[in-house]
Amino acid sequence: MRDWTGSVAFITGGAQGIGLGIARALGKRGVRLALADVDEEALASSAGELAAEVPLDVRDRVAFAAAADRVEAALGPVDLLFNNAGIVPFSVPAELTYDKWDLSLAVNLTGVVNGVQTFLPRMIRRGAGHIVNTSSAAGLVADPNVLYATAKAAVVALSESLRLTVAKHGVDVSVLCPGPVDTEIVRNTRSFDPTVALHDDYVPAVDAFLRSGPGIDEVGEMVVAGMEARSPWIFTGDEVRPHLEERLAAFLRALPTG
């Protein structure tokens, strides 16, 4: 088992939800924590409990670089990067707009790219590091939420490809593909930008689905276990198994034969 004591972790979306669960799991292992979040009220509360607070909108590349410099000056080189910040945008097809696409991709995909591009060169120079990008089960098996599934599928591809290319530099990459997890992501998305929030008619069912899954602290332990195993993929349950099996079988049936 790896000795995490003294390592430094930078966690986006770290003040709440899965990010906070990851932070708590790492904190118990002696990791020094920098929690980055756009929600400054939640950040002040959570960082006061655990770690340094870093106000950050992951869409802002200049702010990302400045935050990295401040954290590394204060805590030391970042060994563990968690690109976890995200929203759950929704739009029926007839109401899709460029603005909705831009927001969804900027937070859920470009935010991950910004984290990678900010910290990866530093990890390569040091010859060590572990990056965990948060996608979703919807990144492996699409659901009808096209804004969300598009970005999350791209995060899976980014992570898998990056893992192949940076292993020789001593950097590990995992992608977290959670199913239902008991977080406040629906409420947080509405607070962040109501123009892409779920329609009120859908919210109770989605909230009930999310509450059916594990809590954030349990997920934090799952993430650490996946990192210990150097797993390419980290899951929070097996709800997606039959859908993955069906998708793989459909791929194989579609391949030409002979």
TrEMBL record:
Superkingdom of source: Bacteria
InterPro entries tied to this protein: KR_dom (IPR057326), NAD(P)-bd_dom_sf (IPR036291), Sc_DH/Rdtase_CS (IPR020904), SDR_fam (IPR002347)
Domain Ketoreductase: 7-184
SUPFAM superfamilies: NAD(P)-binding Rossmann-fold domains
A molecular-function term among this protein's GO annotations: oxidoreductase activity
Protein keywords: NADP, Oxidoreductase
SMART domains: PKS_KR (SM00822)
Pfam families: adh_short
PROSITE patterns, sorted: ADH_SHORT (PS00061)
Entry-linked PANTHER family: DEHYDROGENASE_REDUCTASE SDR FAMILY PROTEIN 7-LIKE, RETINOL DEHYDROGENASE-RELATED
Record-stated family: Belongs to the short-chain dehydrogenases/reductases (SDR) family.
Protein name per the record: Ketoreductase domain-containing protein
